[in-house]
Amino acid sequence: MKRNLIQILCLICLLLIGTLCLLMAEIQDASAQILDPDLVLYFDYEDFDGDTVLEKSGRGYDGAINGDVTQSNDGKFGKAAHFASGSFLDLDGPNVMAEDIPTEGMSILAWLNVEAVSDMAIFNARAGDNTWLVHPEARGGGNYRWLNRSPGGATIFDIRGGENKANEWIHYGGTFSRADGLAVLYINGEKVGEEAARVGTPIAGDWDQGARVGYNIDNNRPFTGLMDDLNIWKRGLSEQEVKDIMNNGLGTVLTAVEAQGKLATTWGKLKAN
């Protein structure tokens, strides 16, 4: 009787261990998946690995630190990155897959806390034909900028608006949809500018001369200060999406979506086993 009880307990333990292993495998598998089909880059700055900042979209475009980019505990959501002047994250633009480069639309969102009112690049990419295809910036003239260009350098839109402020957290949100023919700039969730597309052509479709966070490709407009929750999309986000991400952080928004789908799938597989 005692021996049978021990055997039963051993079987229960083995079953629990197997269930736990399966659950962990499913969670790890889920974490390795692309979080959203339109999310291209996502830096929450929670994980630095030596000279690399881990990118969280699931696409694996980690940022190689050039200069002095350090982790700060003073983020808007948890930790942030502090960029010293002239420092940046190199995203190895020529090796970004063509299907991951925004051409039919683009959105760039980030929390910024700059150390001075001057020209500062949040993100920058340059195409093989020398087109500066995107300029999301805090500007020395006292406002913010949002711009996209087509192949060959034709300007699709160039919006300047809002009030650039130093030493406080400001949320930047630039969106563009080619299908809608409209670009919008949001600062702290409020629309500060919009422009109808000047041309109907797509955004330049390669980053062959490089892509960086925090510094232009020609080593101009250095971002100096704190940056948090940078996310780049290949579609134009809605005003409500911009506000949700601004208020809650992209990680929280995506976790809520993931929890509704993947966890249910995981528990379904566990029950089946």
Q: In terms of topology, how is this protein built?
A:
Blueprint: H1 2-31, E1 39-43, E2 48-49, E3 52-53, E4 63-66, E5 69-72, E6 80-83, E7 88-90, E8 105-114, E9 120-121, E10 123-126, E11 132-134, E12 137-138, E13 144-149, E14 155-161, E15 170-177, E16 182-187, E17 190-196, E18 211-213, E19 225-233, H2 239-248, H3 250-272
Antiparallel strand pairs: 1-19, 2-3, 3-4, 4-7, 5-6, 6-19, 7-18, 8-15, 8-19, 9-12, 10-11, 10-18, 12-13, 13-14, 15-16, 16-17
Task: Describe the overall structure.
- The chain has 273 residues and is of the alpha+beta class.
- The chain has a single domain (39-256), classed as Jelly Rolls, CATH 2.60.120.
- The chain is built from 3 helices and 19 strands.
- It has helices at residues 2-31, 239-248, 250-272; strands at 39-43, 48-49, 52-53, 63-66, 69-72, 80-83, 88-90, 105-114, 120-121, 123-126, 132-134, 137-138, 144-149, 155-161, 170-177, 182-187, 190-196, 211-213, 225-233.
- The strands form 3 sheets. Strands 1, 5, 6, 8, 15, 16, 17 and 19 form an 8-stranded antiparallel beta sheet that branches. Strands 2-3-4-7-18-10-11 form a 7-stranded antiparallel beta sheet, with no helix packed on it. Strands 9-12-13-14 form a 4-stranded antiparallel beta sheet, with no helix packed on it.
- α1 packs antiparallel against α3 (250-272) and α2 (239-248) crosses α3.
- The longest helix has 30 residues, at 2-31.
- The radius of gyration is 22 Å and the shape is globular.
- It starts with a helix and ends with a helix.
